[in-house]
Specification:
Rhodanese-like_dom; GlpE_sulfurtransferase; alpha/beta; 124 residues; single chain; transferase activity; five-stranded parallel β-sheet; two-stranded antiparallel ribbon; 40% helix; transferase; Rhodanese-related sulfurtransferase
């Protein structure tokens, strides 16, 4: 019976740095126990963001995360650049979050492979 379970497909393992393909694999696998955090300014988030991401801008990231996210939750984070992503991830890790993964290439990489994005309607 053990061999049968070894042959079943499995989701990609959690890593401290993830390619967009890794995150998409988890989403396609149907694993709901993760959160995608967009650490860019709210205006950038409203323009376009990874489908299902939540806005937690870098300047309020830790304070809002502490209110809304469990410290052992799988968190995938991205910013404008890989450097901003790394800084946001470091802030979360410094606040005690244990499972934080940096999405390498962020939104640009996500869009480059034509994965689904959302735009927030803004009243004019």
């Amino acid at each position: 019976m053990e061999i049968f379970f070894e042959l079943l497909p499995q989701a990609a393992p959690f890593k401290p740095r993830s390619r967009v393909f890794d995150l998409k694999s988890r989403l396609d696998w149907g694993e709901p126990a993760l959160t995608i955090v967009d650490a860019r300014p709210r205006a950038a988030f409203n323009e376009c963001h990874i489908m299902g991401a939540i806005p937690l801008a870098a300047d309020e990231l830790v304070a809002r995360a502490q209110v809304n996210l469990e410290v052992d939750r799988d968190i995938y984070v991205y910013g404008e650049t890989d450097e901003e992503t790394e800084a946001a991830a470091a802030s979360l890790r410094g606040a005690g979050y244990k499972r934080v993964s940096e999405i390498v290439g962020g939104l640009a990489a996500w869009k480059a492979v034509n994965y689904e994005v959302e735009k927030t309607a803004v009243a004019v």
